[in-house]
Amino acid sequence: MTQICPICQSNRIKFLFENYDILFGYPESFVLNRCVACGHIFLVGDFTNEMLSDLYTNYYPRKQFDVDLYKPYPESAGFFSWLDGDRAACHRWVPKNVRILDIGCGYCETLGYHKKRGCDVYGVEADENAAKIAKRYGFNVHTGIFDAHCYEENFFDYVTMNWVLEHCVQPEETLRQIYSVLKPNGKLIFSIPNLFSLSRYVFGKLWRNWHTPYHLHLFSQQSARVLLEKTGFQYNGSKNFTVSNALMGQWAILFVHGKRGEKSTWASPGTNYLTEDQEKIWFVRLYRFFETIRIHAWLMRFGDAIGMGDDRLYFATKK
After folding, report:
1. What confidence tens digit (pLDDT) does each residue in 53-76 have?
2. Domain range for residue 228?
3. How far is CA 230 from the centre of its chain?
4. In angstroms, rounded to a whole number, what is the distance separating the alpha carbons of residues 99 and 152?
């Protein structure tokens, strides 16, 4: 069957490779194709919102998360904030006292951060396990896939998506719906994996951001801009920022990645919530030493400086 690029509609498609879930044990493997015209990479398959809900609820490790460990993100500024890559997260670019929707709010740390800053806060999370966090702390979270019909039109000042757009079955439809709920001149901020990351070339199929089958789309800068302009947004530019503690996940994958259909021993709730047993593993202890002298942080800043960091932030305005 002839493949068409889901972003620019070109039929100049090339097979890239086949990959599988190396962390959480989803049993199937998937083909990744690349669009020659715009550089977009996408998984081949008939993906549905129901499949995504199953993926995140039954395979992602949030169901292991102890709600008592929850902490909202703190304020962050200064040299060490820059060094640690705090500006890689979308919430750092949102001002106080605005109405904000965070799509893919995960553990709800961003919601707690915005609430403390006087914002009117809403969240969306596909993983049903996040509902227990929202319920405990009183956050307004829609559990499921983002649906604009849940909100009024022209309602939000800001919409953010931290590492979410690459998970969407239909990214074009997602952005069109976001456009409808933003106020005129409202802001969209999202972060996605940087396809030209140095880590991609160093780690090959073990690059953390392939994240098959959870990442359905991997955008080039060209395909991201094409998508924004196609859905009516004014493109305001992008920046290469990578959160420094993301290196923990990549570091761990080198030592403990599962075989096809097998859950890795590293299927933890998140790099900030390691178990006591995981903290005792030799490569985690070595990584913690790197953290104390911030070698990992300098590596991340070097990658960002040459435009080859792991993640990229995009900024757009509703016309």
Report:
1. 777 777 776 666 677 778 899 999
2. 13-318
3. 22
4. 12
pLDDT, residue 98, reads 98
- pLDDT tens for 263-309 read 877 655 454 556 777 788 888 888 888 888 888 899 999 999 999 99
Residue (of 67, 73, 149) closest to 109 by Cα position: 73
Helix (H, G, I), strand (E, B) or coil at 250: helix
What span, in angstroms and rounded, lies between the C-alpha atoms of 47 and 28?
A: 13
Structural contact between residues 126 and 104, judged by C-beta atoms closer than 8 angstroms: yes
pTM here is 0.90
Whether 101 contacts 182, CB under 8 Å? no
Q: pLDDT under 50 in the chain at which residues?
A: 269, 271
Determine the longest span between alpha carbons in the chain, in angstroms: 53
- Per DSSP, which regions of the chain are E strands? 13-20, 29-35, 41-43, 99-103, 120-125, 141-143, 156-162, 182-193, 217-218, 233-240, 311-318
On whether residue 8 sits in a domain, the answer given is no
Inter-residue contact 241 to 87 (CB < 8 Å): yes
As for how many domains the chain has, the answer is: 1
